[in-house]
Every structure is written in C-alpha cells, then in structure tokens.
Amino acid sequence: MPFTLPTISFPFITGSIFNDTWIGGSGGDRYRGLAGNDRIFGFEGNDTLEGDEGRDTIDGGWGHDRLVGGTGDNLLLGGYGDDTIIGGSDNDLIYGDSSQLPGSPGFINLIWSSNDRIFAGAGDDTVFGEYGDDDIYLGAGDDEAHGGSGDDFIFGDNGDDLIFGDAGADEIQGGHGNDSLYGGADQDLVLGGAGHDQIFGGQGNDNLSGGAGDDTLFGGQGQDVIGGSFGNDDLYGSDSGAGDGVADRFVFETGHGVDAVMDYEVGLDMLDLVDGQNVAGYSVGTFLSPSGAVLSGIELHFAGGDAIIVQGVFDYDDLTFV
C-alpha cells in the first residue's frame, strides 16, 4: 500500500502592535506584521510576508515570494525570484527586483533579474518593475509605473496614470482615466483605453491606439501604426511634429470621429481606412483640429460625420491609401 506524506501548512508568525523587525530563515516563512511600522525581511526561501497595518518595509530577499503590504504607505521590495507583490489600500512604493541587506545603514539595493507580478492596489502608488518580464497592475489611484528592462505588461486600470515601458517590447494599457503613456525603446503596443490620453511610442516600430476619448498620439522614431480609435484625436508620426523620415501608417475605423494627422509626409505615410470605409468627399482650406489648433490642408469626409484632417496636404492625389 503506497504511503502519501500529509500536506503541512505552517501558520503565520505574527508581530505586535509595536514597530517590529523580523528576519526570516532559509525556509519558506509566513509572517504577518500586524500594527506598527514594521521591517520584514524574508531572507531565503519562498516566503509569504504581510505587513497588515502601519507603514511597513517588506523585503522578500531570495526566493519566489508573496508580499502583501496591507494598509499604510509601504515600501515593498521583491528581491531575487519571481515574486507576487500586492500593494494594498494606500500609497505604496514597489520595486520588483531590489533588495536591502538587513542591518545596512539606509538603502543598499541589490539588483536582481526576475519576472514579477505586481498588483499596486488602491492609492497613488509608484512601481518599478526593474529587470525581467514583469506584469504590473496599477489599480485605483493616480499611479506611476516604470517597467524597466524586459518585455513588460502594464495595466493602468482606474485613475490618471503615468506609465513608462522603458526598455523591451512592452504592452501598456491605460485603462480608465486621463493617462500619459510612454512606450520607450523597442517595439511596443500602447493602448490608451477610456479617457483623454497622451501616448508616446518612443523608439522602435510601435503600435499605438487611443481608445475612447479625445487623445493625442505621437509615434516617435520608427515605422509606427497609429490609430486614434474612437473620439476626436490628434495624430503625429513623430514627436517633433515635423515628421521623422520613415513611413507611418495612420489607421481609422468606422466611428472614429474627427481626427487630424498633424505631420503627414507625402510619399512615405499612409492612411488605412478599415471596415470598408469610403471617402464621401473632401475640401481644402483651414480647419480646427480636435485640440483647437488652426490647421491648413485637406479634410476628408465620411458617412456618419467622421472626418480626417491632413495638415499640410492640399492635393488629394498626394495621399496614399492602404
């Protein structure tokens, strides 16, 4: 008859109402700080560390750890390993890969490379994914996130968020709110979501979409695909507004509203009319952009009241459609 070892679940070690300092061992520790401003260091092993109440510093150390900040403005450090970090209800500062040696004066950060899952929670949080391919979910509040190196996924959720993909081929989704989204280096996918967003592709051949709301999109360097989606949007192939000398594709779907292409480069850029749209007519003259700027060029008219203003182009034959 085969013998099966029972599954053993170790209880939490709990702190006190005071400001506690706790350092784990080489195994998988389970510690909950309770009240007080605690300093919790997991050391080795796959630990579960919870701050509970108070302004806590929680450091996973080595291992694949689960860190939960709880209430209070907490500092959460994932350390080495593929960690899951949950911020809690207040304004937290989260680093996916940094660690701090116990007993060190101030912060001595040891940088590791690992793939973390970070849930910032409610509050106005600041998150650094650092190294590795991270998944970052910002939650409610006006948050700031930096993906760092690696191919990261960052979701803004609610609030007016500031998100930087940094290095790597990142996917950024703003969610609800008026967000500022920066793809950074490499080939990024940046989706604005609901709200009035500002989107910057940065370097690389990026795919940008504004989503619902009146957005402003800048492709940056590279051959970018830029679509305002729904709402009245200003679209730039570059960051400077003067073009970047490469072929960008501006995408428009049925119901896109009144959009403006601000730096169309004749012979390079293309207009992509999806959903079988047809140009119903056009006019040449002076128009107002969605942001209120006075533009000179051509305006294309579509069924349902949609329109595309192309700044600086006065001849319909100078437009390239795909």
Automatic annotation (TrEMBL):
SUPFAM superfamilies to which the protein is assigned, alphabetical: beta-Roll
Keyword Transferase attributed: no
Origin: domain of life: Bacteria
Cellular compartment(s): Secreted
Keywords in alphabetical order: Secreted
InterPro entries referenced in this protein's UniProt entry, alphabetically: Hemolysin-typ_Ca-bd_CS, Hemolysn_Ca-bd, RTX_toxin/Mannuronan_C5-epim, Serralysin-like_metalloprot_C
Gene3D superfamilies with a match to the protein in the record: Serralysin-like metalloprotease, C-terminal
Molecular function (Gene Ontology), one example: calcium ion binding
GO cellular component, one term: extracellular region
Name of protein: Bifunctional hemolysin/adenylate cyclase
Species annotation: Pelagimonas phthalicica
